[in-house]
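User: what does the whole thing look like in 3D?
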Amino acid sequence: MRVLSLALRRLAASVPTLLLILAGLFLLLQLAPGDTVDALMAQMGGGDAALAEELRRFYGLDLPVMARLGDYLWRLVRLDLGFSSIYGKPVATVILERLPATLLLMTASLSFAFAAGMALGVLAARRVNRWPDTLISTLGLVFYATPSFWFGLMAIVVFSVHLQWLPAGGFGDVAMGYTGLEAALDIAKHLVLPTLTLGLIFLAIYLRIMRASMLEVLSLDFVRTARAKGLTETRVVARHVLRNAMLPMVTLMGLQAGTMLGGSVVVESVFALPGLGRLAYESVAQRDLNTLLGIVFVSALLVIAVNFVVDLLYARLDPRILSGR
Amino acid sequence: MRTWRLYLRSPAAVLGALLVSVVAAMGLLAPFLYPDDPLGLAGRPLQWPGDNPRFPLGTDPSGRDIAAQIFHGARVSLLIGFAATLIAAAIGIAVGALAGFYGGAGDTALMRVTEAFQTLPNFLLLLLLVAVFGSDLRTITVGIGLVSWPPVARLTRAEFLTLRTREFVQAARLQGLGDAHLILREVLPNALPPVLVYASVVMAVSILLESALSFLQLSDPNVPSWGNLIGLGRNVLRTEWYVSAIPGVAILLTILGVSLVGQGLNDALNPRLAGGR
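Assistant: Here's the predicted 3D structure for the full assembly of 602 residues, as structure tokens:
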């Protein structure tokens, strides 16, 4: 229970941050050339100034900036993100349709990067400065330097075009009419390459952090005690070192939730996945600012949610956080 | 001098410096080796590398010389990376120094703003800036700088927090020196090394952000860019994959070089840490 109350307190602390973000975004939009009415008038094929005046009054655009900011925030509280004129639907509906693919992709990439990064980091730390360590660390550097969209394209060339093992894009073969388990397998097959592509840079970061953190924990006194007790090296690592060495990785997971969402824009565009990132790209290309703003808002909520989960995890891994207060 | 010797001792750091120098030299030589417009028609489209001795790296789907675009792209990538890093470092150091030196309500307010920027996915924020302000080269450079400063601010603030109570700072304060002198002449020089190392990360990320943006064709279309070329190659990926492959290798080697230089600087500036690796 104390874990939860601590995490909830942290969650409450992010409310002012969120307000700041929203106010900032609103003011940013004030700087954009042209407003809703200009866009509407352009769609109608133009009109005179009196009509524009009328429309501005109708949409409340003639009110002072602060009043409109208050109105905007109040609408967001009710999860009213406005209307997308491009998709002809409320923005909230459009975003909800696109959210599952992105969440699935992010979860898969994060799990892959976390598991593989941890395994490789442990392996490198246990053979420090010998060839497995050198090989793993070099791989980490190269992965870190690889642009994800380029890796994705090259993976398509190798695995989809030449070997024909995996599909080159999309979120499942609608035409095949799969149901149940078959449909799940089909989606999984479509997600293999995007998951690897998005997870690659995080794999590189995690393995580097895990290696450094393992080396640090391995030099602490309690590890020497565990060894002196006569435990085997594997047991020392598995039972004593791993849990402590994982803490920096968990912190990083929260810090990089936003980076991963940003990365999904590019990856979803490469693999034609119907997710939030691709929606962001489409709304920039079509100048659909309402939708783009909605996506940025939802992303901020997602990042805050991930950090909430990370706080919970962290407190479970390290009981000292609770007793320290 | 000592730092320099320590730096040269690591082969990885030397390799990094070499890679960055080669890319910089490519950028500098581009106008002399390829004086014609790199985005102009050069020959028959989609010639494979090696097919025609005039185009050692082949031509793209619009019949433009890929080698010329790679050389001119090096110039653009490094310039954008460098300028965006300068902007991010300037904002980050200013915010971090003020927050860390004075503390109190100002610190809380500045850190709230930093947190707000860190909660927003930086690529999405960049997309928003491009959507609002357009996509010419200057806007994009400033935009990348604007979304990259928060980690610099946090790092600078942490350094200032530990340094401001040190004896040498207190001694200077007792001499009656003003806050501006204390911040700029006493604390900042000592806080700079870790920030300098982190600047290499900012530069690598800036180059990646720019290439991702131009890959999505949301960057300035009138500027030769590696990301742009990768994006153009997508349409012919199944058969002429080299159009996308070549500029990708250029980006990879540049980022690798910048990262290695950063790591080498880190080890050279913190000799105590380097022993533990």
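In plain terms: The longest strand of chain A covers residues 83-84. Chain A touches chain B through 52 residues (CB under 8 Å).
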